[in-house]
TrEMBL record:
Protein name: Penicillin-binding protein activator
Cross-referenced InterPro entries: BCAA_transport, Leu-bd, Peripla_BP_I
Coiled coil ranges: none
Leucine-binding protein domain span: 72-395
Cited SUPFAM superfamilies: Periplasmic binding protein-like I (SSF53822)
CDD domains xref list: PBP1_YraM_LppC_lipoprotein-like
Organism: Azospirillum griseum
Family: Belongs to the leucine-binding protein family.
Domain of life where this protein originates: Bacteria
Pfam families from the UniProt entry: Peripla_BP_6
GO biological process, one term: amino acid transport
């Protein structure tokens, strides 16, 4: 039995890519890191593979057993060349960490370059399937996912895609990216529990804005609240117009949900305050676009946003992962690198437990605990997440309502 450092394994991994081969978990002893993903009751728990990994109750139903003499091959489709190569490399490096943290000896990762194009993604999928891949992780972009699905579906191979385009869910594809539905429902429900029942949603005329509006309408109906919808041109540079729409609307809202992040959210908040929508009287709410500390944009630098609420994954586990990533590779990971880590970990844990990587194993309602918190894969391709509610502060954000510990809290 022996152990290599992750840094040395990274070198071996790069060499493996040049040979267009797969990457296996070498060595029996797992690396001891504090960012391992633990399986919930979805799978039979494997032997401890990461320091602090949390075991939960075992499933009682009979589960399929995979031939232990066969390698479980899983493809990772990310852009390793082209304009998005830096994102793809960060995701590949995160998957590598998961591989050496979580996988057994017979788990094999097949990284393939999509080139950031639909044709490249389809070619990468065909190559991986020809080499025996039983699950596809990725690709990243919606058009790539659309090109991969008709390749994977006839082979009976599922796709854990990293896109945020919820329209790609279904027909064998799961959307792992952060979509607004859970975020909007979570923050709206929390606001309702604090006595807020009159909402305005202020959203650009974009597909993302459409999704936020739809989610807000569904959430307010669910929680017995009302919502007024105000839309504006996504290309508008002067945001005082949309702010006036809210200020001059019928009735004073108790909360305004902004479907913007970063500097756009800051500008909208300032415009609302300038037009009489006081943050002391009207609570500002946000989506996961506010979860942007990685980008160096502190929302709390805008006084009108201080005290605003948004729903997002609990940041602590991600912070530990980011520190480990930077220590290993000498640079910070891209924000969405956690998706690659979590997806690889799901596949590795299921394979190590002898469950295989088929849909029945992945869609158990108990779900998984990942770097971005509790999540479960729905049969319709949606990924449901258990999120915390955070409050914007001048120096960052603080948790004011923790993420649920299991899906019993959220309901089945």
């Amino acid at each position: 039995m022996w152990r290599r450092s992750v840094a040395r394994l990274a070198t071996a991994f790069s060499l493996g890519l040049k040979r267009h081969g797969g990457l296996k978990r070498h060595g029996v002893a797992a690396l001891l890191v504090a960012v391992g993903l633990s399986a919930c009751s979805t799978v039979t728990a494997p032997p401890p593979v990461a320091q602090g990994a949390r075991q939960t109750t075992q499933p009682t139903a009979a589960t399929p057993v995979v031939d232990p003499s066969q390698n479980v091959k899983v493809a990772l489709l990310v852009p390793l060349s082209g304009p998005s190569a830096a994102i793809g490399q960060s995701m590949l490096d995160a998957a590598q960490l998961a591989l050496f943290d979580m996988a057994g000896d017979r788990f094999e990762l097949l990284p393939r370059d999509t080139k950031g194009t639909p044709a490249g993604a389809a070619d990468a999928a065909r190559q991986a399937l020809a080499e025996g891949a039983r699950l596809i992780l990725g690709p990243l972009f919606a058009a790539e996912v659309a090109a991969v699905k008709p390749v994977a579906q006839p082979a009976g191979v599922d796709v854990l895609a990293f896109t945020t385009d919820w329209n790609q869910a279904g027909n064998g594809a799961f959307v792992m990216g952060f979509v607004p539905g859970d975020q909007v429902e979570r923050v709206t429900g929390f606001a309702k529990s604090r006595g807020i029942s009159r909402f305005v949603v202020l959203a650009p005329r974009t597909p993302y804005g459409d999704a936020v509006v739809g989610a807000m309408q569904g959430a307010t109906q669910k929680f017995g609240a009302t919502v007024q919808v105000e839309r504006y041109d996504a290309a508008a540079t002067d945001l005082s117009g949309p702010a006036r729409q809210v200020a001059q609307g019928a009735g004073q809202p108790q909360a305004v949900l902004l479907a913007e992040g970063g500097s756009r959210a800051q500008a909208l908040a300032a415009a609302l305050a300038a037009n009489g929508v006081s943050p002391q009287q009207v609570k500002l709410l946000g989506t996961g676009l506010w979860d942007d500390a990685q980008q160096g944009s502190s929302l709390g630098q805008e006084p009108a946003l201080v005290g605003g609420w948004y729903a997002a994954p609990t940041p602590q586990a991600r912070a530990a992962f980011e520190a480990k990533f930077e220590q290993t590779y000498g640079r910070k990971p891209q924000r969405i690198a956690t998706l690659a880590y979590d997806a690889t970990s799901v596949a590795a844990v299921l394979a190590r437990a002898g469950r295989g990587v088929d849909r029945s194993a992945m869609t158990n309602p108990s779900g998984f605990e990942g770097l971005d918190g509790l999540f479960r894969l729905r049969a319709n391709g949606a990924v449901e997440r258990g999120l915390a509610v955070l409050e914007v502060a001048p120096t960052g954000a603080r948790i004011i309502d923790p993420a649920p510990s299991n899906f019993d809290v959220l309901g089945q």
